[in-house]
Amino acid sequence: MRLRLLPFALAAFAIAAGGANAGLAAPELVRFESAAYRVGRIQQQQARERGEPARPGPDTISGYLSKPDGDGPFPAVIYLHGCAGLSASNRNRVSDLMTGWGYVSLAVDSFTTRGIKESCNEWRAPRIADALGGLLYASKLPYVDPKRIAVVGSSQGGIAVMGLASVHSVNIYAIPDDLTFRAAVAFYPACGGASQRAAIPTIILIGALDDWTPAENCERWMRLRAGRGAPVQLTVYPGAYHAFDIPTLKDGRRYFGHWLAYDADAAHRANAAMHDFLARQLAK
User: By CB distance 3.0 to 4.6 Å, which of 63, 154, 191, 247 could disulfide with 187?
Assistant: First the structure.
C-alpha cells in the first residue's frame, strides 16, 4: 500500500518531537553485546587450523534505555540512528516519544564504542547485528514483553530496519529462533537492498523531495514485491526532504551533498502514523 497524504487535522495527542514528555528523566546508559554470528562446521575447522577462536566474539556496544512508570511488562521499541551517529537531542526525542506512548525505549549507539564519528560514505558498523543485540538485551529485561518488541530506524538505521524486516533464506545470527521483532518502522530508508518478501509488518515514511534516499526507489521496490509477504505501507510526504522529522534541522542544511530539512507538518503526520501503527502491531 502506498499513500500520498493531503492536509488533514492532526490527532489531539501530543506527538510533536520533544513534546509533552520533555520533562522525563534522561535515558539510562547501558552496555550490551552485538549479536554474534553463527559459525558452521567448516568455518570452525578452518578457524581451529589457523589457531583462531571458532566463534568470533561480539562487540560490546552502548545504548540508552528508558521505560514508562510501572512494572510492566511493557512492549518495547529498539531505535537505530542514522549515519551521523546518535546525538543527545535525538535519543532524548525518541525516548520521550516512546515512553510517552507506553513503550520501553532502547536507542542503540552503534558508533561510540567503536570510535566511529560518522559513517555516511561507508557502512562501518554491523547495524543489523547491533539491532538484534538490542532485541536480545531488551527481551531479558523483567519489565519487557519479549513478544512485543518493534524496531524503528532512520536513514542508515532505516536501511538496517529494511534488512531486519526482510525474509532471508539463512539466519546468520546467533539468537533464539523464536525471538523476532514484531513490527518495523523505517524513516527515509534506501529500499533497494531489502528482499522482495517482508517478514514482519512494516511502514516506510519518506519525503517526496528526498535526494539522498529517493522515494522513487521505495516506490519501485513496492511494485516489485507486489504484496508478497507481510503487509508493507509506504507513505510519501509531499514537499519533505531527508531527515524531515529532526527539529534541529529547522533551518535546513547541506550534508554530504544532500539537503536535510525539518518539516513540522510531515513530522507530525509521520509520528501520528507511527503511533497508530505501533499501537496496532504491539497490542496484546
Answer: 154
Return the bridge partners of 172, or none.
none
**Residue 82 CB partners (closer than 8 Å, separation 6+):** 154, 155, 156, 157, 158, 243
Q: Where are the alpha helices (DSSP H) in the chain?
A: 41-50, 88-100, 127-139, 156-164, 215-225, 264-281
| Pair 154, 213: CB distance under 8 Å | no
Helix (H) or strand (E) holding 2: strand 2-4
pLDDT above 50 for 7: no
Do 281 and 19 meet the contact criterion of CB atoms below 8 Å apart? no
Query: Confidence class of residue 50 from pLDDT cuts 50, 70 and 90?
Result: low
d(CA 51, CA 41): 15
Q: How far apart are CA 107 and CA 62, in angstroms?
A: 9
pTM of the shown model = 0.87
Mean pLDDT (the chain) is 88
User: CA-CA distance, 235 to 177, in Å (whole number)?
Assistant: 31
For the segment 182-205, the average pLDDT, to the nearest whole number, is 96
Residue 37, pLDDT score: 86
State the CB neighbour count (10 A cutoff) for residue 97.
25
Distances (CA, A) of 184 to 14, 65, 111, 151, 187: 22, 19, 22, 5, 10
Query: Using CA atoms, how far apart are residues 207 and 88, in angstroms rounded to an integer?
Result: 24
- What pLDDT digit, counting tens, does each position of 224-250 carry? 999 899 999 999 999 999 999 999 999
pLDDT at residue number 284: 86
Compute the distance between CA of residue 268 and CA of residue 265 in angstroms, rounded to an integer: 5
- The alpha helices in 28-143, defined as continuous H runs, are 41-50, 88-100, 127-139
